[in-house]
Amino acid sequence: MDATTFDNRYRGQLIAAGSVGLLLSLSTLAQPMFVSTFISRVEDRASVVWPLAMITVMFILQAVLTAAQSFLLGRASERITALLRWSATRDLLRSDVAEFRKLDRGDTHSRLVSDTQLASVALADGIVDMATSGFMVVGAVALMLYVDVGLAVAAFGCLSSAALLSALLASRVRAMATTNQADIGAFSSGVQRILGSILTIKSSRAEDREEQRIASLADRARRSGVRLTWLSSLFMPAATVGLQLALLVTIGWGMSKVVEGHMSLADLTAFVMYLFFLLSPLAMLFMSLGRIQRGRAALSRVKELKGIKQEADPVVVPCRLGEDDGIAFEDVRFGYDAKRPVLRDVSLRIPPRGVTAIVGLSGAGKTTLFQLLERFYHPDSGSIRVGEQDISSMPLGQLRGLIGYVEQDVMLFSGSLRENICYSNHDAAEADVAAAIRLAGLQPTVDKLPSGMDTILSEGGVGLSGGEKQRVAIARALLKKPRFILLDEATAHQDSETEAVLLDTLKNVSVETSVIVIAHRLSTISIADRIVVLDGGSVHSVGTHEELLEVDERYRTMILLQMESAPA
Fold first, then answer.
1. Which pTM value belongs to this model?
2. DSSP state of 384
3. Neighbours of 397 (CB within 10 A)
4. Could you tell me whether strands 415-416 and 456-457 are parallel, antiparallel, or unpaired per DSSP bridges?
5. Of the candidates 362, 374, 397, 494, which has an alpha carbon nearest to the alpha carbon of residue 440?
6. What is the pLDDT of residues 442-500, one digit of tens each?
7. Domain 80-306 CATH (choose: 1.20.1560.10, 3.90.1640.10, 3.30.300.30, 1.10.10.10)
């Protein structure tokens, strides 16, 4: 379903709910007329069957219409909430990585869950209630003027002060609603921090500190929420006080008119009913105004997410690539901060087959090479090519379809082990899945799980070791059958036996695929057909393990340090 279809569906339901609300208002406004007729007939000692029957019909009709409007509004509100969450999430999924990483996770979660709900209430209940209440107010005012102009003008004068006060309150409510939603977002961020760092918090004995921090954030949200509630609560008293004053004036002056014979008791009764009928719609009007102000504040926060910069992907026609096309970095310069380059004039060629190891000290730019190749970021200068094709002119889907990327921090999703392995190729044949599991050395893990491949994993793969998570990610990458496999420290958490199986797999796979590994372990480095040494963001040297040991002092030093730090 596209956004246009979704939008038309909920708009139609809002119109339907509004139409039902108008019918409800009309039936309500008709009641005093029948009551006035009933009183007149009683005074004239005439039959009251017809007005009583109509009053009964109006009561039943109002009950049915109220239920219908409530249902239609509720359904429309849920659709709007779903639309806002879907469209905002869609934009986040397609957002520029650099911009996405600037977002606060907790605040973003609050915007997607809490703010979308508030915004939908404003767009559905608030707007429809405001429209139907406005119609009710206009109708009641017109009928009051019809019954007695003088009494109506006096009543409106009493009510005008309430309207002025409510208008002044509306802007304050919106400003405070924005503050409150920001405070809720900050609290949500604090909760995310605890959920994602519980082991660090416990090992650092920081429970009390984090408790105080989250309590402070919760209290800040509470205080702004109380202020918002206080401002919102003033809408109803403003309407009530004005109505009570109008009622006193109406009854006092109206009864004198009845006594003097200038007004019938039936007309006064109808007038007072119309005045009372103003209470509910006026209160609803003021409450809707406050609700809409809160919803507008929430909607503006959701729109900020929808305004996030999107990944540039103007090319839609796939590029033609040859079987022997490798990767070439040409004078690539890049920095996450323009003032501090991470890569400096990197020129590097990676063949279409074989194992290429990238080594260097922490901060040398190894992972950055992978992220540029995936087009998570774009070079500040220079180019990256697959064959003769600059990756900036390739469709993103085609480029990322060529690559199987195993990150250093493996991400497993909540769901079955099978779903996690097949994440990059959900239509994979069972034989291919079994082969990927075997090649990744994951079969012993599958065998020991209670439900095998159908075992449900929690988010993050809690219950699996670091090495097992890495093997799941490697199986996922192999199942994709990419032309280039990027492995960022993919054997770092493996025992020696499992590592040997994985390294043997990588060598076998590299006969038809280019395997690029970021590694520190000598066992991983030594299987590479060629090794690239990065130093300070530049390519320091390229060669085989034996060649670099012979000619590169820096490489020899790195290997010696690695051997000294290896377990005995």
1. 0.71
2. E
3. 11
4. antiparallel
5. 494
6. 899 899 988 999 998 877 777 788 888 888 989 999 998 999 999 988 777 677 777 78
7. 1.20.1560.10
